Every structure is written in structure tokens, then in C-alpha cells.
Amino acid sequence: MSNNLLEQQAHTAVNSAAREHSGRLLALLIRDLKDFHLAQDCLQDALESAVVHWSRNGLPNSTQAWLLQTARRKAIDRIRRTRNFERLSEQYALLLELDQSTQENDEPEVIPDERLRLIFICCHPALDQKTRIVLTLRTLCGLTTTEIARAFLDTPDAMAQRLVRARHKIKNAGIPFELPHQDMWAERLGSVLTVIYLVFNEGYSATSGQHTLRSDLCEEAIRLARMMLQLKPDEAEIEGLLALMLLNHARRLGRSTADDAMIPLDQQNRQLWDHAQIKMAIELLVRALNRHQPGVYQLQAAISAIHAEAESHEATRWHEIVLLYDGMHALSANPVYLLNRAVALSYAESPQAALDALTPLANILNNYQPFYAAQADILRRLGLNAEANLAYSHAIALSQNAIERTFLQGRYDAIASSFTQNI
């Protein structure tokens, strides 16, 4: 095999490993090293070494096992050189033992999965709610600082500073690297579920890149929710969150064309949806609702269930969706719920009613791309083309996803073309 081909394969494999396996590997390294910074630095060193070694020697039997063993050896070297060697001697001894027992060709199944433990560490009550979520998304799920900043309507620099402070606080506070006892779950459960849902959302509607869907993130979030449900099987909001993600993921094949162009909900082929998964998710949702412990994930899943059960966009029970968004906002005030309510209102009542509902949100969501996309569509349906294209311009400027920008640009161009034809 030529050197160029080996190098190309190596780069592809390293990028894939960083995207798909870094969370699992980092969680395990943090468990062993009890140090976020050291674990991240050693995994990054291992990824850089992989580019060199795999370009020269080809891919190992298991990229995960190779990266894990290499990262541990990098940690051994770093600890040997540190002035705090005595303090880290316990970790050093453990790493030597693990290095002797781990083989480079081990299958991924033999590598323990510590991601759920890491979520609970990141969601420790010593950290504020936003920091818990941000730290988990960056550490466990591999989202970039920029992607996370965009999700929180924040700047990348401010988000980077928050991450640094969080890691220092975990280290200085001596937060234990273990799952909390179940009687302590309540104080962390909300943050953990929020993290899982944000991971799913980044996969379901990627905020950046060349694709609208990242199935790896969706499936990772679903897997984590199933793991949570096994640990706490009678928790209605865990059931609601899992049902919500399954319902949305069941519609993935109808959301884009073969060449990955976006298809809006009203134009999707509903025969492509996974109706077996929809049925399973609705049964899970009914079980959650019958517990009479209402929560926003259950209500959100109920909205998705209405969409999934409707034979067509026109047959959707839009009035019920509006009421469900009212219920969500009553449980947890959130301007995004009101934005989505306005979109539902445009079909339940009229586009004008929706436009009136959007007006008080303009200042609150003035840097939020979905606000301008929704506003543009409502203005388009009202025939206010100049105003619609201004809103489309804002939405295009704020979008970091190439497929999404292409879709919005197509809507903009269609309106601009109608201007030209009418001159």
C-alpha cells in the first residue's frame, strides 16, 4: 500500500476515533488518573501519535485499544517527569498494572465503559447548572467549544473560560470519581437529562458542519438514556426523554434527500419513518404519563407523538400542540418553548397570530438562528416577501451548518426571483 494511501487512511481513522470514541476513552482515563487536564492531554498526545504510527505501519486491529494503551503510556511518562510524582504514585502504579494487562489488539468490548460515571461527576452540585452541562458536552461527548457556545447563545472565549474554571473546581474540591448513591440522584438528575438531550439535539440538528444529522450523537444519547433507565427504572422523566429521542430519531430518513438536502416537515414522506420505533416510543411515553409525574420531556415527547401519529402535516392536531407548549412553559419558563408555540400557532390559528406571538421574543432571541428562520417562514406565508427575505438573511448569517444554509438560501432565492419576475 502506498505511503499516501496509508497516510490518508490514518487521518480518516484518527478523525473517526476522535469523534466516535474519545468520550469513552476519556472517561476511562479520567477514572484512572483522577485529573481532567492530564487525561485530556494524554488522549490528545495519543491521537497525534496515531497519525504518525498508523501512517507508517497501517491501522491496528482495534483503534480504541491502541489509543487507550498509548494514552496510558503518555500518562506514565508525564507522571515520571512531574515534581508531584509522590502524590501521583498511586495512579502511576495503577497505570503500570493496566499497561501490562491491556493489549493493543484488544476488542472494544473488553474496554470498560465509564461514560455514565463521568456524566454524574460533571453534574456534581458543587458546579452551577450551566457549567455541569457545558463540561459534560465538552469532556464526554466531544462537542467543540464553539458548538457548545452556540447552543448556549454564548461566545467561544467565554465558554472556554467556563470550562477551565470547572476543571479547576473539580480538582480543588476533590470531587470523587464515582457514581453517587441513589438517594443523591435527585440533585443531579435534571442536569444529567439536560446533557443527554443536548447531545441528542446536536446530532439531530447539527449546528455546524456539512451534514444536518449526526447519527453517532443521536445514538449515543439514546444509549445513555437507556442506561439511566436501567439504573432508575421508575423515573417518568427518564422514560419521557427516551421516548422523545426515539420518536424524533424514528423520523430521520424522511428529513433529507439522498444528497443530504433538507426536507421540511410538511414535505416529508411519512412512509420513510420508522413506525415500529414510533409505536415502541409511544408505549414508553404512555407508561411515563401514567405515573402522573409531569415533566417537560414527557410533554415534549407528547408533541413529537402527535407529529408521528398524524397521517399528514395538515391532519396534525396543532391546537393540542399549542396547549402542550403552554404546559411546558408553565413548568419551566423558556423563550424557545414560546418560539415553538408560535410556529404551532401559525397552523392552529393563522400566520398573523404567530407573528404577533413572535414580537415580544425578538429582543430575547435576537442572536438565535431558529428565531429568524421561523419568523422568515411565517412572513413568507403572509406574503410579506421583503420582510421575509430580511429575516432569511439574518438566519443564513447565523447558521454554521452548510446544508441548513443551502436550504435557507433556496427560500431566499425563490422570493428574490419572484421580485424579479414581477418587475
Going across the biggest sheet, name each strand in turn: 1-2
- Low-pLDDT runs of 5+ residues are none
Query: How many distinct beta strands?
Result: 2
Could you state the oligomeric state of the chains shown?
single chain
Query: Total helix count?
Result: 20
Beta-strand portion reads: under 5%
Average per-residue pLDDT, rounded, comes to 84
Rough shape? globular
In short:
With 423 residues, the protein is mostly helical. It has helices spanning 3-20, 22-33, 36-57, 63-81, 89-101, 115-122, 129-139, 145-151, 156-173, 186-204, 215-231, 236-249, 275-289, 296-309, 318-331, 335-348, 351-358, 369-381, 385-398, 402-422, and strands spanning 208-209, 400-401.
Structure description:
The chain contains 20 helices and 2 strands. With 423 residues, it is mainly α. The chain has a two-stranded parallel sheet. It is globular. The mean pLDDT is 84.
Protein traits:
2 strands, two-stranded parallel ribbon, mainly alpha, 20 helices, single chain, 423 residues, 69% helix
SSE topology:
Blueprint: H1 3-20, H2 22-33, H3 36-57, H4 63-81, H5 89-101, H6 115-122, H7 129-139, H8 145-151, H9 156-173, H10 186-204, E1 208-209, H11 215-231, H12 236-249, H13 275-289, H14 296-309, H15 318-331, H16 335-348, H17 351-358, H18 369-381, H19 385-398, E2 400-401, H20 402-422
Parallel strand pairs: 1-2
